[in-house]
Specification:
single chain; mainly alpha
């Protein structure tokens, strides 16, 4: 095989790198940010697409976040690739915090009191796997709690991405204009000789 390692990784190393990459998370974050900045679309479209991905990550519907993000991006005229990249906000490291936050905010907004003291049996609810058995005690509070959290994070992410993409595209246009001037000057000098 062309790109195979000379020394295959052990199972323990593969498992460790699944949770903590060898080069760290900063490399992945840098790649993701550069990928978003280099998209060829307007700053609004890119920012709206990323926000659609982030907002969809707040919902409790695991497995359909990308579909939700694409639908939201379509509705707000966002970039579809940016929406798919924005769903990286919800990942195995952030999901426990997202779920805990949406659950807590949702219960406070609905006013159900403390669900743990009422004896909520999550194992039984998941074993039934019916939407009606999970809607009232689990999904409804998480969905209601996701609305304000998604709105706040959406505004913050939109502002940050819009400003970053605008500045990046302006610098890129300046560099391309400089290169064009240099090429034009070289072409004029070459033709006058």
């Amino acid at each position: 095989m062309l790109f195979r390692r000379r020394q295959p990784l052990s199972r323990l190393t593969k498992l460790r790198e699944l949770f903590w990459p060898r080069r760290g998370f900063s490399r992945s974050l840098r790649y993701l940010s550069k990928r978003i900045l280099r998209l060829s679309a307007t700053p609004h479209a890119i920012a709206a697409g990323v926000v659609a991905g982030v907002v969809s990550s707040w919902t409790p519907f695991i497995g359909v976040h990308i579909l939700i993000a694409l639908a939201l991006a379509y509705l707000v005229a966002g970039n579809m690739v940016a929406a798919a990249l924005g769903t990286a906000f919800g990942n195995p490291l952030t999901f426990p915090f997202i779920w805990a936050a949406t659950w807590e905010v949702g219960h406070r907004m609905i006013g159900n009191g403390d669900p743990v003291s009422r004896g909520l049996d999550l194992e039984k609810k998941y074993s039934l796997m019916g939407l009606e058995s999970m809607w009232q005690p689990i999904l409804k509070p998480m969905l209601v709690g996701a609305i304000p959290l998604a709105a706040v994070s959406g505004v913050l992410v939109y502002a940050a991405i819009y400003i970053a993409v605008s500045k990046f595209q302006a610098r890129r246009r300046e560099r391309l204009a400089e290169r064009a001037k240099i090429r034009l000057a070289e072409a004029l000098q070459g033709s006058s000789i």
